[in-house]
Amino acid sequence: EAGVAQSPRYKIIEKRQSVAFWCNPISGHATLYWYQQILGQGPKLLIQFQNNGVVDDSQLPKDRFSAERLKGVDSTLKIQPAKLEDSAVYLCASSRNTGSSREQYFGPGTRLTVT
Amino acid sequence: QQQVKQSPQSLIVQKGGISIINCAYENTAFDYFPWYQQFPGKGPALLIAIRPDVSEKKEGRFTISFNKSAKQFSLHIMDSQPGDSATYFCAASIGGSNYKLTFGKGTLLTVNP
Question: In terms of Cα–Cα distance, which of A93, A112, A99, A13 is closest to A46?
């Protein structure tokens, strides 16, 4: 079974620029998550999709962050404009989320550096 | 507000020793408690998970101990190996909702040979 794919793996941008990250979840996983992991901290959920609908975006800074999941498969996360404090690893995860299976499978992440 | 508190922040253990990482939670609605292992440059990977209806779960060298009344759970790594050197995160989620994970801040484990 192929894992969660993310690209790019690394990105360096200047503040006020825009950036987009892409995620391809494990086939058949209806739930997709985007997490932000700041250095030295645990992942923090930004947004959760169930198929192509948003379940939870309560911690997404909506003035600059946006995400979409077209056709309930791939997803993109965009930051525009970026701030210095957005420097972090952006992790995508997917899950079946049935009653007996709640494991989230994480991709390798995209390391974003904002200068 | 941090709902899952993890300690210690870092831990150094000798090869063959026991590594113990502790977590405490506040929300009694949590009903799923996984531990994730993360190596540098990789995403977190599920190590072991427990539900509150059992007090202990063991998988190989890894054991979760769960104390529902104290709202605490811990990860024990027996016979620690240099290959276990990684960052470990405890987490918790609520079933019947969106299953989102709330993570602790992580513990950097170093196992010296």
Answer: A93
